[in-house]
Design brief:
The complex is a heterotrimer. Chain B is an all-alpha fold. In chain B, about 65% of the residues lie in helices and about 0% in strands. The longest helix of chain B is centred in the last third of the chain and has 17 residues. The mean pLDDT of chain B is about 95. Chain C contains two helices and seven strands, in the order E-E-E-E-H-E-H-E-E. Chain C has a five-stranded antiparallel beta sheet with strand order 6-5-4-3-7. Chain C has a two-stranded antiparallel sheet with strand order 1-2. The longest helix of chain C has 4 residues. Classes of the chains: A alpha/beta, B mainly alpha, C mainly beta. Chains in contact: A-B, A-C, B-C. The interface between A and B is large, with 69 and 68 residues.
Chain lengths: ~220, ~110, ~120
Amino acid sequence: MTHRHEDDAHDHDHDHAHPHAEISEGRPGYYDIMETAVRELLIDKKLIGADEIRRQIEVLDSRMPALGARVVARAWTDPAFRARLLADGRAACEELGISFYDDTSLIAVENTDKVHNLIVCTLCSCYPRPVLGLPPDWYKARPYRARAVVEPRAVLAEFGTIIPDEVEVRVHDSTAMVRYLVLPKRPAGTGHFSEEELAALVTRDTMIGVVPATVDVAGAAP
Amino acid sequence: MTETEKLVNRLPNDIGGLPADPIQRVDHELEPWEKRCHALADVLDFHKIINTEEKRCGVEALGAEMVGKLSYYERWIVAFANILFRKGILTPTELALKMKEVESRSNED
Amino acid sequence: MDGTSKSAGLPGSVVFALGEKPIFKPGDRVRVSTRSPVGHYRVPTYLRGKSGSVERVIEPAAVDNEEEGYGRNAGSKRHYYRVAFRMSEIWPGYAGSERDGLHIEVFETWLERGER
Protein backbone atom coordinates (compact mmCIF):
# COMPACT_ATOMS: atom_id res chain seq x y z
CA MET A 1 0.00 0.00 0.00
CA THR A 2 1.11 3.51 -0.65
CA HIS A 3 -0.04 5.26 2.50
CA ARG A 4 1.83 7.95 4.23
CA HIS A 5 2.20 7.14 7.88
CA GLU A 6 3.25 10.47 9.32
CA ASP A 7 -0.03 11.29 10.98
CA ASP A 8 -0.89 7.90 12.27
CA ALA A 9 -1.25 8.96 15.87
CA HIS A 10 -4.37 6.95 16.41
CA ASP A 11 -5.11 3.47 17.46
CA HIS A 12 -5.76 1.13 14.64
CA ASP A 13 -9.37 1.25 15.57
CA HIS A 14 -11.25 -1.19 13.46
CA ASP A 15 -14.55 0.45 13.02
CA HIS A 16 -16.89 -2.29 14.01
CA ALA A 17 -19.13 -3.28 11.21
CA HIS A 18 -21.40 -5.33 13.41
CA PRO A 19 -23.59 -4.35 16.31
CA HIS A 20 -22.31 -5.83 19.50
CA ALA A 21 -25.22 -5.18 21.74
CA GLU A 22 -25.58 -8.51 23.42
CA ILE A 23 -28.72 -10.36 22.64
CA SER A 24 -29.44 -12.86 25.37
CA GLU A 25 -32.81 -14.52 25.54
CA GLY A 26 -34.40 -11.65 23.67
CA ARG A 27 -33.57 -9.14 26.41
CA PRO A 28 -32.56 -5.73 25.15
CA GLY A 29 -28.87 -4.89 25.34
CA TYR A 30 -27.33 -1.91 27.13
CA TYR A 31 -27.43 0.48 24.16
CA ASP A 32 -30.90 -0.68 23.16
CA ILE A 33 -32.04 0.27 26.69
CA MET A 34 -30.21 3.57 26.47
CA GLU A 35 -31.94 4.40 23.18
CA THR A 36 -35.37 3.57 24.60
CA ALA A 37 -34.67 5.63 27.73
CA VAL A 38 -33.46 8.71 25.83
CA ARG A 39 -36.35 8.54 23.40
CA GLU A 40 -39.00 8.08 26.09
CA LEU A 41 -37.61 10.91 28.20
CA LEU A 42 -37.71 13.26 25.21
CA ILE A 43 -41.27 12.17 24.42
CA ASP A 44 -42.28 12.66 28.10
CA LYS A 45 -40.90 16.18 27.91
CA LYS A 46 -42.88 16.75 24.70
CA LEU A 47 -39.73 17.68 22.79
CA ILE A 48 -40.43 15.02 20.19
CA GLY A 49 -43.45 12.88 19.40
CA ALA A 50 -43.67 9.10 19.37
CA ASP A 51 -45.51 9.46 16.07
CA GLU A 52 -42.56 11.32 14.59
CA ILE A 53 -40.21 8.45 15.37
CA ARG A 54 -42.64 5.89 13.97
CA ARG A 55 -43.08 7.97 10.83
CA GLN A 56 -39.36 8.47 10.36
CA ILE A 57 -38.79 4.70 10.58
CA GLU A 58 -41.30 4.36 7.74
CA VAL A 59 -39.45 7.06 5.83
CA LEU A 60 -36.15 5.21 6.28
CA ASP A 61 -37.70 1.89 5.29
CA SER A 62 -39.08 3.43 2.11
CA ARG A 63 -35.65 4.59 0.93
CA MET A 64 -33.70 1.92 -0.87
CA PRO A 65 -31.35 1.51 -3.82
CA ALA A 66 -34.32 0.73 -6.06
CA LEU A 67 -35.18 4.45 -5.98
CA GLY A 68 -31.73 5.42 -7.20
CA ALA A 69 -31.98 2.68 -9.82
CA ARG A 70 -35.16 4.27 -11.18
CA VAL A 71 -33.35 7.59 -11.44
CA VAL A 72 -30.44 6.00 -13.31
CA ALA A 73 -32.67 4.02 -15.66
CA ARG A 74 -34.62 7.18 -16.48
CA ALA A 75 -31.38 9.04 -17.20
CA TRP A 76 -30.26 6.22 -19.49
CA THR A 77 -33.46 6.33 -21.52
CA ASP A 78 -34.37 10.04 -21.45
CA PRO A 79 -31.57 12.41 -22.53
CA ALA A 80 -33.46 15.50 -21.33
CA PHE A 81 -33.89 13.95 -17.87
CA ARG A 82 -30.21 12.98 -17.84
CA ALA A 83 -29.29 16.60 -18.54
CA ARG A 84 -31.56 17.82 -15.74
CA LEU A 85 -30.12 15.22 -13.36
CA LEU A 86 -26.58 16.33 -14.05
CA ALA A 87 -27.55 19.99 -13.71
CA ASP A 88 -29.47 19.60 -10.43
CA GLY A 89 -29.56 16.12 -8.92
CA ARG A 90 -32.05 16.94 -6.23
CA ALA A 91 -34.58 18.59 -8.52
CA ALA A 92 -34.42 15.68 -10.95
CA CYS A 93 -35.02 13.14 -8.16
CA GLU A 94 -37.88 15.25 -6.87
CA GLU A 95 -39.45 15.03 -10.33
CA LEU A 96 -39.67 11.29 -9.71
CA GLY A 97 -41.27 11.85 -6.32
CA ILE A 98 -38.17 11.34 -4.18
CA SER A 99 -38.08 13.88 -1.34
CA PHE A 100 -34.97 15.08 0.46
CA TYR A 101 -36.12 14.75 4.04
CA ASP A 102 -32.63 15.53 5.37
CA ASP A 103 -32.41 18.77 3.36
CA THR A 104 -29.23 17.75 1.60
CA SER A 105 -28.61 18.57 -2.02
CA LEU A 106 -27.47 16.07 -4.58
CA ILE A 107 -24.86 16.16 -7.30
CA ALA A 108 -25.04 13.35 -9.80
CA VAL A 109 -21.68 12.50 -11.35
CA GLU A 110 -21.57 10.57 -14.61
CA ASN A 111 -19.25 7.72 -15.44
CA THR A 112 -18.07 7.83 -19.03
CA ASP A 113 -15.37 6.24 -21.17
CA LYS A 114 -13.02 8.90 -19.80
CA VAL A 115 -14.06 9.33 -16.16
CA HIS A 116 -14.83 6.95 -13.30
CA ASN A 117 -16.38 8.43 -10.15
CA LEU A 118 -16.16 7.05 -6.63
CA ILE A 119 -17.98 8.37 -3.54
CA VAL A 120 -16.64 8.33 0.01
CA CYS A 121 -17.01 10.30 3.23
CA THR A 122 -13.72 10.29 5.10
CA LEU A 123 -14.96 12.32 8.11
CA CYS A 124 -18.15 10.40 8.86
CA SER A 125 -20.64 8.57 6.65
CA CYS A 126 -22.35 11.14 4.41
CA TYR A 127 -24.42 9.24 1.88
CA PRO A 128 -27.40 10.05 -0.37
CA ARG A 129 -29.84 8.44 2.07
CA PRO A 130 -33.01 9.96 0.54
CA VAL A 131 -32.23 8.18 -2.75
CA LEU A 132 -30.29 5.05 -1.72
CA GLY A 133 -31.37 4.36 1.86
CA LEU A 134 -28.81 3.71 4.57
CA PRO A 135 -25.22 2.95 3.60
CA PRO A 136 -23.68 -0.52 3.91
CA ASP A 137 -21.36 -1.18 6.84
CA TRP A 138 -18.23 -1.28 4.70
CA TYR A 139 -18.94 2.28 3.54
CA LYS A 140 -18.89 3.45 7.18
CA ALA A 141 -15.88 1.38 8.22
CA ARG A 142 -12.27 2.49 8.47
CA PRO A 143 -10.68 0.63 5.52
CA TYR A 144 -12.91 2.17 2.86
CA ARG A 145 -12.96 5.66 4.37
CA ALA A 146 -9.22 5.76 5.01
CA ARG A 147 -8.09 4.34 1.69
CA ALA A 148 -10.54 5.53 -0.98
CA VAL A 149 -8.96 9.00 -1.08
CA VAL A 150 -5.34 7.87 -1.25
CA GLU A 151 -5.40 4.70 -3.35
CA PRO A 152 -8.76 4.61 -5.10
CA ARG A 153 -7.54 2.28 -7.82
CA ALA A 154 -6.40 -0.29 -5.28
CA VAL A 155 -9.71 0.03 -3.43
CA LEU A 156 -11.64 -0.39 -6.68
CA ALA A 157 -9.54 -3.44 -7.54
CA GLU A 158 -10.59 -5.00 -4.24
CA PHE A 159 -14.16 -4.69 -5.49
CA GLY A 160 -13.05 -6.36 -8.73
CA THR A 161 -13.12 -3.10 -10.67
CA ILE A 162 -10.03 -2.43 -12.75
CA ILE A 163 -9.90 1.08 -14.20
CA PRO A 164 -7.61 1.51 -17.23
CA ASP A 165 -4.84 4.10 -16.81
CA GLU A 166 -6.26 6.36 -19.49
CA VAL A 167 -9.51 6.73 -17.52
CA GLU A 168 -9.51 9.49 -14.91
CA VAL A 169 -10.54 8.38 -11.43
CA ARG A 170 -12.47 11.08 -9.60
CA VAL A 171 -12.98 10.60 -5.89
CA HIS A 172 -15.68 12.68 -4.21
CA ASP A 173 -15.15 13.18 -0.48
CA SER A 174 -18.55 14.19 0.84
CA THR A 175 -18.17 16.52 3.83
CA ALA A 176 -20.93 19.11 3.92
CA MET A 177 -24.53 19.37 2.79
CA VAL A 178 -24.05 17.94 -0.66
CA ARG A 179 -24.43 14.25 -1.34
CA TYR A 180 -23.23 12.43 -4.44
CA LEU A 181 -24.77 9.80 -6.67
CA VAL A 182 -22.85 8.04 -9.42
CA LEU A 183 -24.64 7.72 -12.74
CA PRO A 184 -23.04 4.50 -13.97
CA LYS A 185 -22.39 3.74 -17.62
CA ARG A 186 -25.20 1.94 -19.36
CA PRO A 187 -24.04 -1.60 -20.10
CA ALA A 188 -23.47 -2.49 -23.74
CA GLY A 189 -26.09 -4.65 -25.41
CA THR A 190 -29.04 -3.21 -23.51
CA GLY A 191 -30.46 -1.15 -26.36
CA HIS A 192 -33.66 -3.19 -26.35
CA PHE A 193 -34.14 -3.14 -22.55
CA SER A 194 -37.16 -1.40 -21.09
CA GLU A 195 -36.65 1.24 -18.40
CA GLU A 196 -37.77 -1.29 -15.81
CA GLU A 197 -35.35 -3.92 -17.07
CA LEU A 198 -32.56 -1.37 -17.01
CA ALA A 199 -33.38 -0.38 -13.43
CA ALA A 200 -32.93 -4.01 -12.40
CA LEU A 201 -29.28 -3.80 -13.52
CA VAL A 202 -28.51 -0.85 -11.26
CA THR A 203 -27.28 -1.95 -7.85
CA ARG A 204 -26.42 0.14 -4.82
CA ASP A 205 -22.71 -0.39 -5.36
CA THR A 206 -22.86 0.89 -8.94
CA MET A 207 -24.26 4.16 -7.59
CA ILE A 208 -21.46 4.45 -5.00
CA GLY A 209 -19.08 3.86 -7.89
CA VAL A 210 -17.26 0.76 -6.64
CA VAL A 211 -18.52 -1.49 -9.44
CA PRO A 212 -19.83 -0.93 -12.98
CA ALA A 213 -23.39 -1.76 -13.96
CA THR A 214 -23.47 -5.03 -15.85
CA VAL A 215 -26.07 -7.21 -17.48
CA ASP A 216 -24.95 -9.96 -15.13
CA VAL A 217 -26.34 -8.54 -11.90
CA ALA A 218 -25.73 -11.80 -10.06
CA GLY A 219 -22.06 -10.80 -9.95
CA ALA A 220 -22.81 -7.54 -8.15
CA ALA A 221 -23.64 -6.93 -4.50
CA PRO A 222 -27.25 -7.23 -3.39
CA MET B 1 3.90 18.17 16.75
CA THR B 2 4.03 16.05 19.90
CA GLU B 3 1.98 12.90 20.29
CA THR B 4 -0.52 14.59 22.58
CA GLU B 5 -0.81 17.58 20.25
CA LYS B 6 -1.60 15.19 17.42
CA LEU B 7 -4.33 13.61 19.52
CA VAL B 8 -5.90 17.02 20.05
CA ASN B 9 -5.45 18.22 16.47
CA ARG B 10 -6.61 15.20 14.58
CA LEU B 11 -10.13 14.14 15.42
CA PRO B 12 -10.75 10.40 15.74
CA ASN B 13 -13.02 10.39 12.68
CA ASP B 14 -10.53 12.17 10.44
CA ILE B 15 -8.98 9.08 8.89
CA GLY B 16 -8.64 9.91 5.18
CA GLY B 17 -5.23 8.69 3.99
CA LEU B 18 -4.33 6.73 7.12
CA PRO B 19 -3.18 3.13 6.82
CA ALA B 20 -5.96 0.58 6.97
CA ASP B 21 -6.80 -3.03 6.26
CA PRO B 22 -8.18 -4.46 3.02
CA ILE B 23 -11.87 -3.76 2.42
CA GLN B 24 -14.24 -6.39 3.67
CA ARG B 25 -17.63 -6.05 2.03
CA VAL B 26 -19.54 -6.43 5.27
CA ASP B 27 -23.07 -5.34 5.97
CA HIS B 28 -25.84 -6.26 8.37
CA GLU B 29 -29.56 -5.76 8.68
CA LEU B 30 -30.08 -3.03 11.27
CA GLU B 31 -31.26 -4.15 14.70
CA PRO B 32 -34.63 -2.60 15.59
CA TRP B 33 -32.97 -0.32 18.16
CA GLU B 34 -30.40 0.80 15.59
CA LYS B 35 -33.14 1.82 13.20
CA ARG B 36 -34.96 3.63 16.01
CA CYS B 37 -31.69 5.36 16.87
CA HIS B 38 -31.35 6.54 13.26
CA ALA B 39 -34.94 7.79 13.24
CA LEU B 40 -34.29 9.54 16.56
CA ALA B 41 -31.24 11.26 15.04
CA ASP B 42 -33.32 12.52 12.12
CA VAL B 43 -36.13 13.78 14.36
CA LEU B 44 -33.65 15.50 16.70
CA ASP B 45 -32.18 17.23 13.64
CA PHE B 46 -35.61 18.23 12.26
CA HIS B 47 -36.27 20.08 15.53
CA LYS B 48 -32.67 21.28 15.81
CA ILE B 49 -32.57 19.79 19.29
CA ILE B 50 -29.39 18.11 18.11
CA ASN B 51 -28.48 19.04 14.55
CA THR B 52 -26.54 16.61 12.37
CA GLU B 53 -23.33 18.53 12.81
CA GLU B 54 -23.70 18.49 16.60
CA LYS B 55 -24.12 14.74 16.38
CA ARG B 56 -20.88 14.42 14.40
CA CYS B 57 -19.12 16.71 16.84
CA GLY B 58 -20.53 14.70 19.76
CA VAL B 59 -19.21 11.45 18.28
CA GLU B 60 -15.76 12.97 17.82
CA ALA B 61 -15.87 14.20 21.41
CA LEU B 62 -16.18 10.60 22.61
CA GLY B 63 -12.47 10.31 21.90
CA ALA B 64 -10.41 7.83 19.92
CA GLU B 65 -10.88 4.87 22.25
CA MET B 66 -14.68 4.94 22.25
CA VAL B 67 -14.84 5.80 18.55
CA GLY B 68 -12.65 2.76 17.92
CA LYS B 69 -14.47 0.32 20.15
CA LEU B 70 -18.16 1.20 20.02
CA SER B 71 -20.28 0.26 17.03
CA TYR B 72 -21.80 2.94 14.79
CA TYR B 73 -25.14 3.43 16.55
CA GLU B 74 -23.63 2.84 19.99
CA ARG B 75 -21.51 5.93 19.32
CA TRP B 76 -24.60 7.87 18.27
CA ILE B 77 -26.74 7.12 21.30
CA VAL B 78 -23.92 7.81 23.77
CA ALA B 79 -23.16 11.09 21.96
CA PHE B 80 -26.87 12.05 22.12
CA ALA B 81 -26.93 11.44 25.88
CA ASN B 82 -23.84 13.61 26.41
CA ILE B 83 -25.18 16.43 24.24
CA LEU B 84 -28.57 16.38 25.96
CA PHE B 85 -26.83 16.60 29.36
CA ARG B 86 -24.71 19.50 28.18
CA LYS B 87 -27.78 21.34 26.90
CA GLY B 88 -29.57 20.82 30.18
CA ILE B 89 -32.34 18.85 28.48
CA LEU B 90 -31.63 15.66 30.45
CA THR B 91 -29.60 14.96 33.55
CA PRO B 92 -27.36 11.92 34.02
CA THR B 93 -29.44 10.80 37.02
CA GLU B 94 -32.66 11.06 35.06
CA LEU B 95 -31.25 8.90 32.30
CA ALA B 96 -29.79 6.33 34.71
CA LEU B 97 -33.14 5.96 36.49
CA LYS B 98 -35.04 5.71 33.22
CA MET B 99 -32.65 3.04 31.96
CA LYS B 100 -33.23 1.07 35.14
CA GLU B 101 -36.96 1.32 34.63
CA VAL B 102 -36.73 0.23 30.98
CA GLU B 103 -34.55 -2.69 31.97
CA SER B 104 -36.88 -3.87 34.75
CA ARG B 105 -39.80 -3.59 32.36
CA SER B 106 -38.13 -6.04 30.00
CA ASN B 107 -37.37 -8.42 32.90
CA GLU B 108 -41.06 -8.64 33.70
CA ASP B 109 -41.91 -9.94 30.24
CA MET C 1 -15.59 41.15 -7.52
CA ASP C 2 -15.88 44.75 -6.38
CA GLY C 3 -18.93 44.27 -4.16
CA THR C 4 -21.16 46.54 -6.23
CA SER C 5 -23.52 46.08 -9.08
CA LYS C 6 -24.34 48.71 -11.67
CA SER C 7 -27.62 47.73 -13.22
CA ALA C 8 -29.40 49.79 -15.81
CA GLY C 9 -32.45 51.52 -14.49
CA LEU C 10 -31.37 51.58 -10.85
CA PRO C 11 -30.22 54.76 -9.17
CA GLY C 12 -26.58 54.55 -8.11
CA SER C 13 -25.14 51.15 -7.41
CA VAL C 14 -26.12 48.38 -5.02
CA VAL C 15 -23.52 47.48 -2.42
CA PHE C 16 -23.45 43.88 -1.25
CA ALA C 17 -22.82 42.88 2.34
CA LEU C 18 -19.49 41.30 3.16
CA GLY C 19 -19.72 37.60 2.47
CA GLU C 20 -22.91 37.96 0.46
CA LYS C 21 -21.24 37.27 -2.85
CA PRO C 22 -18.83 34.39 -3.34
CA ILE C 23 -15.18 35.48 -3.18
CA PHE C 24 -14.04 32.84 -5.67
CA LYS C 25 -15.37 31.80 -9.03
CA PRO C 26 -15.05 28.62 -11.04
CA GLY C 27 -11.53 28.19 -12.39
CA ASP C 28 -9.87 30.17 -9.59
CA ARG C 29 -6.80 28.60 -8.03
CA VAL C 30 -7.18 28.23 -4.28
CA ARG C 31 -5.16 26.86 -1.40
CA VAL C 32 -6.63 25.22 1.68
CA SER C 33 -5.56 26.95 4.87
CA THR C 34 -3.01 25.12 7.02
CA ARG C 35 -4.69 25.98 10.31
CA SER C 36 -5.44 23.26 12.84
CA PRO C 37 -8.68 23.85 14.72
CA VAL C 38 -9.45 21.61 17.66
CA GLY C 39 -12.83 20.32 18.81
CA HIS C 40 -14.60 20.10 15.48
CA TYR C 41 -13.72 20.71 11.86
CA ARG C 42 -14.95 19.65 8.45
CA VAL C 43 -11.80 19.94 6.36
CA PRO C 44 -9.86 16.70 6.55
CA THR C 45 -6.24 16.90 7.66
CA TYR C 46 -5.02 15.38 4.41
CA LEU C 47 -6.07 18.52 2.48
CA ARG C 48 -4.49 21.20 4.63
CA GLY C 49 -2.17 23.41 2.63
CA LYS C 50 -3.05 21.73 -0.69
CA SER C 51 -3.78 23.69 -3.85
CA GLY C 52 -6.64 23.07 -6.22
CA SER C 53 -9.12 24.89 -8.39
CA VAL C 54 -12.69 25.93 -7.82
CA GLU C 55 -15.07 23.77 -9.81
CA ARG C 56 -18.31 25.42 -8.80
CA VAL C 57 -19.91 27.61 -6.19
CA ILE C 58 -22.47 25.67 -4.17
CA GLU C 59 -25.66 27.68 -3.82
CA PRO C 60 -27.21 28.78 -1.63
CA ALA C 61 -24.74 30.02 0.96
CA ALA C 62 -24.89 27.92 4.13
CA VAL C 63 -24.05 28.06 7.80
CA ASP C 64 -20.45 27.22 8.61
CA ASN C 65 -20.75 23.62 9.77
CA GLU C 66 -17.88 24.03 12.18
CA GLU C 67 -20.12 26.47 14.08
CA GLU C 68 -23.21 24.32 13.55
CA GLY C 69 -21.35 21.60 15.42
CA TYR C 70 -21.85 23.67 18.55
CA GLY C 71 -25.53 24.28 18.02
CA ARG C 72 -25.38 27.55 16.10
CA ASN C 73 -28.13 26.89 13.61
CA ALA C 74 -28.22 30.32 12.07
CA GLY C 75 -25.85 33.10 11.13
CA SER C 76 -22.38 32.97 9.61
CA LYS C 77 -23.70 32.00 6.23
CA ARG C 78 -20.96 31.88 3.64
CA HIS C 79 -20.35 30.09 0.42
CA TYR C 80 -19.26 26.55 -0.09
CA TYR C 81 -17.20 25.56 -3.09
CA ARG C 82 -16.58 22.36 -4.85
CA VAL C 83 -12.83 22.29 -5.23
CA ALA C 84 -10.90 19.92 -7.47
CA PHE C 85 -7.42 18.70 -6.56
CA ARG C 86 -5.01 16.49 -8.42
CA MET C 87 -4.30 13.33 -6.48
CA SER C 88 -0.60 13.81 -7.24
CA GLU C 89 -0.79 17.24 -5.54
CA ILE C 90 -2.29 15.74 -2.40
CA TRP C 91 -0.22 12.56 -2.24
CA PRO C 92 3.42 12.67 -3.33
CA GLY C 93 4.12 9.34 -5.01
CA TYR C 94 0.44 8.75 -5.81
CA ALA C 95 0.01 5.44 -7.60
CA GLY C 96 -2.36 6.10 -10.46
CA SER C 97 -2.94 8.34 -13.41
CA GLU C 98 -1.71 11.94 -13.33
CA ARG C 99 -5.28 12.87 -14.28
CA ASP C 100 -6.84 11.30 -11.16
CA GLY C 101 -8.49 13.83 -8.92
CA LEU C 102 -10.25 14.49 -5.67
CA HIS C 103 -13.35 16.67 -5.40
CA ILE C 104 -14.61 18.04 -2.13
CA GLU C 105 -16.74 20.83 -0.67
CA VAL C 106 -14.82 23.44 1.27
CA PHE C 107 -16.28 26.37 3.20
CA GLU C 108 -15.09 29.80 2.09
CA THR C 109 -13.25 30.62 5.32
CA TRP C 110 -10.88 27.72 4.63
CA LEU C 111 -9.77 28.95 1.22
CA GLU C 112 -6.96 31.32 0.29
CA ARG C 113 -6.32 32.67 -3.16
CA GLY C 114 -3.76 30.50 -4.88
CA GLU C 115 -1.12 31.21 -7.47
CA ARG C 116 -2.19 31.64 -11.06
